[in-house]
Design a protein that fits this description.
Chain lengths: 793, 220
């Protein structure tokens, strides 16, 4: 091998060697001899077969100069090679490239930062040219290794940054060079990714204090992207080029890096990085990132809650980006995974503050995700979450179960908040509404409150929620937003109103209710009233508030404070209703009562408290301050509405436990099946159902009032006893039965009162359609309101 | 110059502060760096040595001992021909960690990698691990054992020369992890033993080209 040590006999040297020698000046600082370089280039172009020898010779010279530390000449040799590389684009280039890369490697191997940087620049130039015939045997392992090492340079300040920048640019070049053709070198192999990715992240994470530093150093660098910025660009490019099979190869080292460098807490950098990944990844794969993050949560099951909270925090920040792309099953997969993380967390017996924060973070992620899904998927998700809530809802649960229930309800609330109801019937399919109402009767008051909040957010379409969050009698101050309710809405409330009202009424009977619970029920009712303003719903609502009033008068279980609360929401609703559908006389009546109560019994007005002054008179002793059913009928009539249904007494019993009423109507159906009680009438009901619109037979009304009176005049002890019994049965039922069972359940037959009430209500209800006015507005037959179940099955 | 016949990759691992960087710099630059800072990520040095009239180029990758760089450093084990596992004879914890290091090596390095255990800083008075303890440990785990002082240049040269000789012997008997590729074999004068281990799931180039990956020849 000629090592170029025979300068003495240059005359006999091959021409290419002489041409190469001539490009070097006597003094390196004079730089490349340009005219001779042109000659060399021309020669290379005309004799391309010599190119590989020229390359080899240049390399040999440079290697020798490096050894002798004559770096000036090394730089010139490299420059010459660069020029030749760019000038010659022939198939012959291939062998030249080998020398070129050997040269680059040689420079990279030196300890001189300048040479390393120079080599990188040359490598970048090389990477940018397209080779006709890629060389399959060429490997880039060294370059990846070395550039990655350079990315971690620990040299002194400015040099450090220069070398790091070079390292990043080098990595970027390797990726560009290899990414398009797997045969050249599969850059996605973990050997490479495990070097490239941490090197980029390491530079990105330094940005914080790096920026502070660079303020002190004068900003001179010309083409200066600082290492963090450059690394970021490079990462974007890398992620953007990754196809599905490669995503994990990129992500795995990311997670490892974050773990090892403890970059999850705080999670600013993690959020930053994962946003970059999400925004640069090919959209259809974005959900893989979410999936991997969640898998990482799994891996961290044993880590501190703080770490998990922060990972979940990252999740919530990026999950929305994935939501847009997630379709079909992957959506539920993500939700399911989030829910199971929640469940796992709840099972973590020690539920300290950190664990709670973790759960909050997960719920946030869930909400963020749902927020960006189309509405139909939100309903799907809500139903899905619903299906995950453990049943039955009983009070002797393990704390974990209770916690899980309330956490899932919170998730539901979160998703619900992001959902914008258009039609109530799409928001509340029966399979969603039913379990929701069932949960509104849970033994735990907090849980009941959550359910009401879910109802609020789903029912409220006109942003009235805030205004109606507290009972008030000053309706005009509220500036409610009203819109005429649509026909589908009316059909909805006609169909489902009874079970909704029933559930609300029943929940008001709970002696564990706090003022908050009672307020929440008020809000639900007020929202229903506002959203469904119509003459039909008004009667139902009035019936219900009369029922609530009599509940507060007759209940033996509720405390006085709870009873006052009930009166307060009753009067608030009474004030609200006539302003919504504008029944002036009724509004005046409400005003009048309010004024009187202000004078005599402010404790029967909002606000609601849990304690009242001991001298607060019970409402039973203040009959003139109560809402009178007959008066209401009158004013309703005066307002141009038909009060007949109101006159027929409410389905909400005479203060009996609400479930009596709920089941009693249902038991009626069953009694028909059993052929007991009043055969004729039930058969009528049946036939009426099969042919809607058919009017029912006239039954004597007097009987009704008489029976009613009888019930009311019965000794209170009997009632009290029955009530307690009912209560027992009720809570037992809750513990064991499913909702549909509950709905269908018949009350025990030994209950005399019950049978009597059944009788009465049967006859009452069958009277309903008697009036001619009723017939007119009977677009939806009244019995359909009362027997929604018949239409479900 | 560059007409080396063999190219070997040597990777140094071990706890932070045991003196890896000092060993490398002693060997490649002949000095003991005062106030050597902790290595960040990976450092790289090169030295060409002569073994029985043959030029052998050693690519030395000096890894950071700090835990946080473990992800990047591990990725360098894979292509190593020799691994030097260093501990500090005056610091028991660095010795206690050896089993952890071995586990990592087991996991990430080639199964045929030459492994050498080095107890460094023998110039220090406050030795905590007697020679025979290190020796026994090495023996138990099929490693060479050597005690060095980067400071006083004891055994440093010998360490790397021994490795070069051994790898060359292995290479001659073709027992070294390698590709069948003739990578960079431009002028036929060098026979670089190229990158990557038999365990990293890489395949012989020719096979990859024809799109038919087969199992790793060294592991199967
Ligand atoms: N007395 C003595 N001190 C040594 C010797 N080798 C290294 N040191 C000292 O040990 C300290 C750490 O040496 P390094 O070479 O930086 O250790 P390292 O293993 O590279 O550490 P990391 O890069 O953090 O993994 C330095 O202060 C050295 O001066 C030795 O042989 N004898
Ligand atoms: Mg070091």
């Amino acid at each position: 091998m000629c090592n170029g040590c025979c300068g003495c006999c240059s005359a006999f040297r091959p021409r290419y060697k002489r041409l190469v020698d001539n490009i070097f000046p006597v003094y390196p600082q004079d730089g490349l001899v340009k005219s001779n370089m042109e000659k060399l280039t021309f020669y290379s172009l005309s004799s391309p077969e010599k190119l590989d020898r020229i390359g080899e010779y240049l390399y040999q010279r440079a290697a020798r100069d490096i050894y002798r530390k004559k770096y000036g000449f090394v730089i010139i040799a490299m420059e010459a090679m660069d020029q030749l590389l760019l000038a010659c684009h022939a198939p012959t280039l291939n062998l030249f490239v080998e020398s070129f890369l050997k040269m680059v490697q040689k420079l990279l191997e030196s300890t001189e930062p300048e040479l390393q940087i120079l080599a990188t620049t040359s490598f970048v130039k090389f990477a940018n040219i397209e080779e006709d015939t890629p060389s399959y045997h060429r490997r880039y392992d060294f370059f990846v290794s070395k550039f990655s090492a350079m990315c971690h340079s620990g040299e002194r300040d400015e040099i450090r940054d220069k070398i790091r920048t070079a390292g990043i640019k080098g990595l970027q070049a390797v990726v560009r060079k290899t990414v398009s053709d797997d045969l050249v070198e599969n850059i996605w192999e973990s050997v490479h990714m495990d070097k490239i990715v941490p090197s980029l992240l390491f530079n990105m994470q330094e940005s914080g204090f790096h920026k502070k530093e660079s303020n002190n150093i004068d900003v001179t660098s010309e083409d200066a992207l600082d290492p963090p910025m450059l690394a970021e660009t490079c990462l974007r490019e890398l992620v953007g080029r990754a196809s599905f099979g490669h995503i994990r190869a990129v992500l795995r080292p990311v997670f490892k890096h974050f773990d090892l460098h403890t970059l999850w807490v705080p999670n600013d950098f993690a959020i930053h990085t994962f946003r970059i990944i999400m925004f640069s990844i090919q959209a259809q794969y974005s959900y893989t990132v979410v999936e991997t993050l969640m898998a990482h949560l799994d891996d961290n099951a044993k880590s501190s809650a703080t770490i998990r909270t922060n990972i979940a925090g990252v999740l919530s920040k990026i999950i929305a980006i994935a939501a847009g792309e997630s379709v079909g099953p992957s959506v539920l997969e993500i939700i399911n995974s989030l829910l199971s993380h929640l469940r796992d967390s709840v099972r973590n017996e020690a539920s300290q503050l950190e664990e709670k924060q973790y759960q909050e973070a997960l719920i946030n992620a869930l909400g963020e995700f749902a927020n960006h899904l189309p509405d139909y998927q939100k309903i799907e998700i809500m139903m899905f979450i619903m299906s995950k809530i453990p049943f039955p809802l009983v009070d002797n649960h393990s704390p974990a179960d209770n916690l899980l229930q309330s956490i899932l309800l919170k998730s539901l609330l979160k998703v619900g908040t992001k959902y914008q109801t258009i039609h109530l019937n799409t928001t509340f399919p029966v399979s969603f509404l039913e379990p929701l109402l069932r949960m509104s009767l849970a033994p735990d008051p907090d849980m009941r409150l959550l359910v009401q909040k879910i109802l609020h957010t789903l029912i409220d379409r006109h942003n009235n929620l805030e205004k109606l969050s507290k009972p008030t009698v000053n309706i005009f101050d509220l500036e409610l937003v009203l819109e005429k309710s649509s026909r589908p809405d009316l059909i909805f409330i006609n169909k489902h109103g009874p079970i909704i009202y029933d559930a609300l009424y029943t929940s008001l009977q709970m002696d564990t209710n706090t003022p908050e619970n009672i307020e929440a029920v008020y809000t639900t009712l007020a929202l229903l009233c506002v959203e469904l303003a119509s003459v039909e719903t008004v009667i139902d609502l009035l019936q219900l508030i009369l029922g609530i009033q009599s509940l507060s008068l007759n209940s033996t279980l509720l405390s006085n404070a709870q009873k006052f609360n009930l009166h307060a929401i009753v009067i608030s609703l009474l004030a609200l209703i006539p302003t919504i559908v504008s029944i002036k006389p009724l509004a005046d009546y409400a005003c009048q009562i309010i004024e009187q109560r202000k004078q005599e019994a402010p404790h029967l007005l909002p606000d609601l408290f849990s304690h009242y002054p001991t001298n607060s008179e019970v409402a039973n002793k203040l009959p003139h301050l109560l809402i009178d059913q007959m008066a209401i009928c009158e004013y309703v009539k005066a307002g141009g509405l038909d009060p007949s249904r109101l006159q027929q007494t409410s389905p909400y019993g005479a203060g009996g436990p609400g479930f009596v009423t709920g089941t009693q109507r249902n038991s009626w159906i069953e009694s028909g099946a059993r052929g007991s009680i009043i055969d004729i009438q039930t058969s009528e009901v049946d036939s009426a159902c099969s042919s809607p619109g058919v009017q029912k037979k006239y039954t004597d009304e007097e009987l009704t009032f008489e029976s009613m009176k009888k019930v009311l005049t019965e000794p209170p002890e009997v009632r009290k006893e029955a009530e307690a019994e009912r209560r027992k049965v009720l809570s037992h039922t809750f513990r064991t039965a499913t909702f549909s069972e509950l709905v269908r359940r018949t009350q025990p037959k030994h209950d005399v009162l019950q049978t009597k009430l059944n009788e009465i209500f049967n006859s009452l209800n069958s009277n309903e359609n008697r009036s001619p006015i009723d017939e007119k507005k009977a677009a939806v037959p009244a019995y359909e309101q009362n027997f929604p179940e018949l239409f479900y099955y | 110059m560059d007409d080396y016949k063999f190219l070997f990759k040597v990777v140094l691992v071990g706890n932070a502060g045991v003196g890896k960087t000092c060993l490398v710099r002693r060997f490649t630059q002949g000095l003991f760096p005062p106030g050597q800072g902790a290595t960040i990520g990976v450092d790289f040095m090169i030295k060409t040595v002569e073994v029985g009239n043959e030029k052998v180029k050693l690519q030395i990758w000096d890894t950071a001992g700090q835990e946080r760089f473990r992800s990047i450093t591990q990725s360098y084990y894979r292509s190593a021909h020799a691994l030097i596992l260093v501990y500090d004879i005056s610091c028991q914890p660095t010795f206690d960690c050896l089993t952890d290091w071995l586990r990592e090596i087991e996991e990430y390095a080639s199964c045929k990698v030459l492994r050498v255990l080095v107890g460094n800083k023998i110039d220090r008075e406050d030795r905590e691990i007697p020679t025979h303890v290190g020796e026994e440990f090495a023996e138990r785990h099929n490693m060479y054992y050597l005690e060095t002082s980067a400071k006083q240049s004891d055994n440093v040269e010998r360490l790397f020369m021994q490795i070069a000789e051994d790898l060359m012997k292995q290479a001659r008997s073709r027992d070294l992890p390698r590709y069948n590729s003739n990578h960079q074999n431009i002028n036929g004068t060098t026979t670089p033993i190229s990158d990557s281990s038999c365990c990293s799931g890489k395949f012989i180039n020719a096979i990859v080209i024809f799109g038919k990956p087969t199992a790793c020849i060294h592991c199967s």
